[in-house]
């Protein structure tokens, strides 16, 4: 007595809970891996998950078993050269003399790392946790693009409501013609013959022949009629495809101070800030270009690698970077085509006489062009002149300008808060 | 014109449900002719993804949630997606009805093979073998798992996931020591207890001699003679903790019980791997050949079948890079075939070694072997000199005290007996797992628990034992000690949790 059951449509992902528990238990390890990945990867390269490695001994489940030593007697197959009483040196560990029974994973020692992948969602989750993003925002950031449905020709599969009647009937007609081609030729030939005969004089011979031909004709016509009028095969459906909604282009200009006072840990913090802005922009724009401008006393446009990882020393003049930014915008990113976002990170140092110059540059040259200008000051010390200068601007351009002091990653988010608020207003 | 004869079940390699039913019907008929007694079958078709889920819940259709199953899943998924491992063609569960999972990717031939292997081979083994009959209740396991899953979920809601997880972690560490190896006697009823007490009293009364009471008793050192608790060492550590741990709450005891029950359920499988797989391979081979002989399947089908069959029972030699111990499928399958051969065509050697088998009815003899043995005794009883020669088995003696390994026996006249005994010993669970038992509880003092590891062949415990002891400490709640002792009673090593300064791994002379 047997029952055969199709379980393929049953709920999948039965192991999800267990998997999540595993991830939760090794959160610390995974976080380290995510941190490492953030530092290693480019800002634009967060679209995929990540590989996490955990030393096997940290996740092993201990049980009592025999350790090396003592006397063991084992039986092996495939003897070729040994005779009774042979003696030979013990092979190195991992050779043929290794223990035969038991799975290697239970033995724990000498194993490589336990490596597994986490998805992009999980990757971002771990990163956002660090940044203390509210849940709703996390979700918005993860749903990268929105789609719309468009027509794209016809297909032979689909749901009944998408059935295209004219196309289906055309296909049916074509099929009927195709399948009855030979017989139609025959019918035509028969008819011709019948007509020819009918024109001739009536004799017994011709009547007999006429009758035979007519019978054959009838038979053929019947078989042609047997072809189904419409068949599953003929059905045509409107084909719909999901296309990402094209949104306009954006450029994100990252400005960072790389003078001697900016340590690598400050830069890493700045990198998280830039990543978050990038993710946010990605949510809203189809195409994003990144421009990196770094400065000490001189400003220079560089690539991402150099931006984050090369070290410079020297004093700080911010205005150079701002005017370079303005030049880049003017020459390459016309505000009528591009949405321009500028993000500036610094430890707050600036040469004394320069700050008012910066204020002027922002007010006159930059802020009229850009969608948003975000400034983070990564420092634990007291504010310096640039901060006070910017505070004045903040009051003047509260719509476009945000600034925040950051001592830990959790402080980054408030900078974006206003930006999000603005977005939801526009959307609603 | 098709050349296939009308008797053929199919000439395609694609399966569908009608064909599966047809194959199952035929195989059931043949299996019945061969006298296989099975539970009803429940054949379930699943996807590879569901197979991975099944893998990571120890093959059961449902199980409680625990991070270690997630770890297993993550690992399986990783290996599978990298192409480093294939998935099993089937999983079969010892339940009534017997549930077998078939992967949808299999070809028709594979499905037929798997049905023969799992639904008639394993199934009849589950129903017939004495260990399964003694220790598992096939009709109740699914319900019990459902109960366990719900109970543990409720515990998690009430006491928090972390609390529950901690207890389960500790239980899992001791899972191998949560089984009964022998049936306990049924507890006495109240009436029997009274009856016993009465007869004991009567006996005492008969032998009472007032004179003896006048002789003064010898004063011994009191604590040396102090009775141990438990009086007899207890090998089921989890059982002992469940019943005796001083501080556990009742839900925690229930969790221990659940893990213990599961360990007990899997206990027969661990001891019958060779037999179980051998039996199933023997029967898929026999059943499908019968199908072929009857003309129900064609040559192409058989070629595909034989290809799969021979890769399943392939045994790489000891120096092969893919060697990882003796393949239980190979050993089991050949032993089963060998029994049939000895019954049907015995040689003089077989008559000498197996006088009771030679010339007997093979079906009855094979059935007897399946029902009444486990791997260890099965090998001890049935491994023939011919098979030792065919597999070219040899025995390596590894004494850590010596610089060299020694070949003690090979496949020749003088070696057969020793190889048979050694191989049987290799499947003896008592040798494979360290023999650790509850020895004493200091019930009048600090309530510390002492375990004893009775060493076998001077094999020490591995370094993970300290971690296990921490888990034991969590369950017991008071100090836990573990002593490794030699057969002559000397203690070679002591472990303690929490470690005390002076006792930390003292090696006694």
Instruction: Compute the number of structural domains of chain B.
Output: 4
Q: How many domain units of chain A?
A: 3
Task: List low-confidence stretches of chain A.
Answer: 94-111, 423-428
The whole-number mean of residue pLDDT values of chain A reads: 79
Largest interface: A-B, 65 and 100 residues
| Secondary structural class of chain B | alpha/beta
Radius of gyration of chain A in whole Å, from Cα?
Answer: 38 Å
Specify the structural class of chain A. alpha/beta
Number of strands of chain A: 13
Summarize the structure.
Chain A has 14 helices and 13 strands.
Supply the key terms.
heterodimer, A: 428 residues, alpha/beta, Rossmann fold, 3 domains, six-stranded mixed β-sheet, two-stranded antiparallel sheet, disordered C terminus, B: 509 residues, 4 domains, 20 helices, 51% helix, 11% strand, globular
Please explain how this structure is put together.
The complex is a heterodimer of chains A (428) and B (509). By secondary structure, chain A is an alpha/beta fold. The model of chain A is unreliable at 94-111 and 423-428 (pLDDT under 50). Chain A folds into three domains: 16-57 and 112-131, no CATH class; 160-238; 249-427, Rossmann fold (3-Layer(aba) Sandwich). Chain A contains 14 helices and 13 strands. The two termini of chain A are 62 Å apart. Chain A is flat and about 125 Å long. Chain B has 509 residues and is α/β, with parallel strands linked by helices. Chain B folds into four domains: 17-129 and 272-306, no CATH class; 141-177 and 232-270; 317-430, no CATH class; 434-497, no CATH class. Chain B has 20 helices and nine strands. Chain B has a four-stranded mixed sheet. A three-stranded mixed sheet of chain B has the order 1-3-2. In chain B, a hairpin with a 5-residue loop joins strand 8 (480-485) and strand 9. In chain B, helix 1 crosses helix 4 (108-128), helix 4 (108-128) packs across helix 11 (273-293) and helix 7 (161-173) crosses helix 20. The radius of gyration of chain B is 27 Å and the shape is globular. At the A-B interface, strand 1, helix 1, strand 3, strand 4 and strand 5 of A face helix 1, strand 1, helix 2, helix 3 and helix 7 of B.
């Amino acid at each position: 007595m047997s029952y055969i059951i199709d379980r393929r449509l049953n709920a999948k992902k039965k192991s999800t809970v267990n998997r999540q528990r595993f991830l939760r238990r090794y959160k610390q390890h995974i976080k380290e891996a995510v941190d490492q990945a953030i530092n290693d990867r480019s800002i634009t390269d967060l679209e995929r998950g990540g590989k996490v490695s955990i030393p096997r001994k940290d996740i092993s489940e201990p049980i009592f078993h025999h350790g090396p030593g003592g006397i063991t007697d084992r039986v092996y197959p495939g003897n070729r050269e040994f005779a009774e009483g042979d003696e030979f040196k013990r092979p190195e560990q991992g050779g043929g003399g290794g223990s035969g029974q038991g799975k290697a994973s239970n033995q724990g020692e000498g194993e490589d790392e336990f490596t597994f992948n986490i998805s992009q969602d999980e990757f971002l989750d771990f990163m956002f946790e660090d940044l203390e993003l509210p849940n709703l925002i996390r979700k918005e950031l993860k749903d990268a693009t929105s789609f719309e449905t468009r027509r794209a020709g016809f297909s032979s599969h689909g749901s009944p409501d998408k059935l295209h009647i004219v196309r289906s009937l055309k296909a049916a007609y074509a099929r009927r013609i195709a399948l009855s081609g030979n017989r139609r030729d025959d019918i035509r030939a028969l008819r011709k013959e019948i007509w020819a005969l009918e024109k001739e004089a009536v004799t017994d011979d011709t009547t007999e022949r006429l009758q035979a031909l007519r019978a054959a004709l009838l038979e053929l016509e019947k078989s042609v009629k047997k072809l189904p009028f419409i068949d599953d095969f003929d059905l045509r459906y409107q084909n719909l495809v999901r296309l990402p909604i094209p949104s306009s282009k954006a450029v994100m200009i990252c400005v960072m101070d790389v003078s001697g006072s900016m340590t690598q840990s400050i830069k890493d913090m700045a990198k998280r800030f830039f990543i978050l802005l990038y993710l946010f922009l990605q949510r809203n724009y189809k195409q994003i270009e990144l421009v990196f401008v770094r400065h000490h006393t001189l400003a220079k446009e560089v690539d991402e690698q150099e931006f984050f990882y090369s070290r410079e020393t020297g004093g700080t003049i911010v205005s150079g970077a701002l005017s370079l930014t303005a030049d880049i915008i003017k020459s390459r990113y016309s505000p009528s085509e591009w949405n321009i976002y500028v993000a500036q990170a610094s430890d707050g140092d600036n040469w004394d006489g320069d700050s008012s110059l910066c204020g002027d540059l922002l007010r006159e040259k930059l802020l009229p062009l850009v969608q948003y200008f975000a400034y983070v000051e990564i420092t634990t010390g007291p504010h310096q002149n640039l901060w006070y200068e910017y505070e004045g601007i903040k009051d003047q351009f509260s719509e476009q300008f945000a600034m925040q002091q950051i001592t830990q990653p959790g402080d980054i988010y408030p900078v974006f808060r206003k930006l999000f608020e603005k977005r939801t207003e526009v959307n609603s | 014109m098709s050349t296939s004869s009308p008797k053929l079940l199919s000439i395609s390699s694609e399966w569908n449900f009608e064909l599966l039913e047809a194959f199952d019907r035929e195989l059931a008929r043949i299996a019945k002719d061969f006298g296989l007694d099975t539970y009803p079958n429940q054949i379930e078709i699943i996807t590879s993804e569901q197979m991975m889920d099944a893998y990571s819940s120890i093959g059961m259709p449902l199980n409680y949630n625990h991070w270690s199953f997630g770890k297993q899943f993550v690992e399986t998924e990783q290996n599978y997606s990298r192409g480093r491992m294939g998935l099993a063609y089937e999983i079969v569960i010892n339940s009534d009805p017997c549930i077998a999972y078939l992967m949808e990717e299999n070809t028709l031939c594979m499905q037929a093979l798997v049905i023969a292997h799992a639904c008639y081979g394993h199934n009849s083994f589950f129903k017939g073998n004495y260990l399964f009959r003694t220790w598992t209740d096939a009709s109740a396991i699914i319900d019990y798992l459902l109960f366990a899953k719900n109970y543990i979920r409720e515990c998690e809601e009430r006491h928090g996931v972390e609390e529950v997880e901690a207890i389960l972690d500790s239980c899992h560490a001791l899972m191998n020591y949560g089984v009964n190896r022998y049936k306990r006697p049924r507890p006495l009823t109240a009436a029997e207890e009274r009856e016993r007490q009465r007869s004991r009293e009567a006996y005492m009364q008969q032998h009472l001699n007032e004179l003896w009471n006048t002789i003064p008793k010898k004063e011994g050192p009191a604590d040396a003679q102090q009775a141990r608790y438990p009086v007899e060492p207890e090998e089921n550590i989890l059982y002992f903790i469940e019943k005796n741990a001083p501080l556990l709450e009742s839900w925690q005891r229930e969790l221990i019980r659940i893990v213990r029950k599961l360990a007990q359920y899997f206990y027969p499988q661990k001891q019958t791997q060779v037999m179980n797989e051998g039996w199933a391979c023997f029967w898929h081979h026999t059943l499908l050949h019968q199908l072929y002989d009857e003309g129900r399947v064609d040559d192409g089908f058989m070629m595909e079948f034989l290809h799969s069959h021979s890769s399943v029972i392939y045994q790489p030699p000891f120096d092969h890079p893919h060697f990882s111990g003796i393949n239980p499928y190979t050993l089991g399958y050949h032993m089963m075939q060998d029994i049939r051969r000895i019954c049907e065509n015995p040689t003089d050697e077989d008559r000498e070694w197996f006088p009771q088998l030679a010339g007997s009815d093979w079906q009855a003899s094979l059935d007897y072997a399946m029902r009444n043995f486990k791997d260890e005794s099965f090998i001890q009883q049935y491994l023939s000199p011919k098979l030792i020669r065919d597999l070219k088995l040899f025995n390596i003696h590894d004494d850590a005290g010596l610089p060299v390994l020694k070949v003690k026996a090979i496949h020749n006249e003088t070696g057969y007996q020793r190889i048979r005994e050694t191989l049987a010993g290799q499947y003896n669970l008592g040798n494979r797992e360290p023999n650790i038992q509850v020895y004493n509880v200091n019930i009048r003092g600090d309530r510390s628990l002492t375990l004893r590891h009775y060493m076998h062949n001077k094999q020490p415990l591995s370094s993970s034992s300290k971690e296990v002891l921490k888990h034991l400490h969590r369950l017991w709640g008071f100090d836990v000690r573990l002593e490794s002792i030699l057969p002559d009673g000397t203690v070679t090593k002591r472990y303690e949790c929490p470690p005390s300064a002076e006792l930390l791994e003292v090696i006694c002379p």
